[in-house]
Amino acid sequence: MPNPVKIALHGKVFNDEVKPHIKKVVDYLEASNTELIVSQLFAKKFKEAFPQYSNFDQFNKLQASDNVDYLISLGGDGTLLEAVNYVGELETPILGINTGRLGFLATTPKDKIDKALSDLLNKNYKIDSRALIHLETDSKVFGEKPFALNELAILKTDSSSMITVHTYVDGEYLNSYWADGLIVATPTGSTGYSLSCGGPIILPHSNNFVITPVSAHNLNVRPLIVSDQSVISFKIEGRSNKFLVSLDSKSHSVDSSIKMSVRKGDFKAKLITFDQLNYFDTLRQKLNWGLDLRN
Fold first, then answer.
1. Which residues form the active site (predicted)?
2. Which of 40, 168, 255, 293 counts the highest number of beta carbons within 10 A?
3. Do the annotations mark residue 151 as ligand-binding?
4. 15 and 115: one domain?
């Protein structure tokens, strides 16, 4: 007999409103004779909510030896970004079930859970490979996870004045951004933090980065799109010697002596999609395009 499909589950703390939807996922997978493995971060809440399903293995980062076929993210986009970190270079396909709010990445709605899981187990899906951004530093700030699906952000600390981020593209001086910070976003991340700072929406497979200042002091400074074949490097100055560097949901405090550069990652995030929804559908729905409140 073939081995059962092995599925990793990752989620966050959830409320009573979300619990029935997570139970639907677990019940369906159990009835389908799949093997489940649950992230350590999710395991405690999972055990409390579903004591009948307490006999499962846990993981902190997926290993090749785990032989996981899919990872299912139960939550919003933030949960899916964490799932990308669990998968890393294994490129295990990720299905995002949206029990959160916006859902640009976790696009499967709660009322389509049964259909999505059926299509998943019957291999009736497509893989949407998304480029990652990779951070290189001289101090290994992010350890074994120096990558992000959405963006790198260099930010001032909460109480400090503006910072200056001297920015170079392939070694050539670009600009000194006097601002609260600077974002380098992937096309996937162009609908996240970068968008809220006035950056453009970039289609997922455009092979670009967008450099977006955060609250720039000079009003004529605008977001800039560059090729993702470029290496973008930085030098940081400010009255405070401490700055915040983040890769999606991961963040660390650094000082101005750090050497940093970003480039396109060596591997990708593989998101599971279905025929009934495409990227333009998601844009229209999440951004309410075409809706007129006067009607």
1. 77
2. 168
3. yes
4. yes
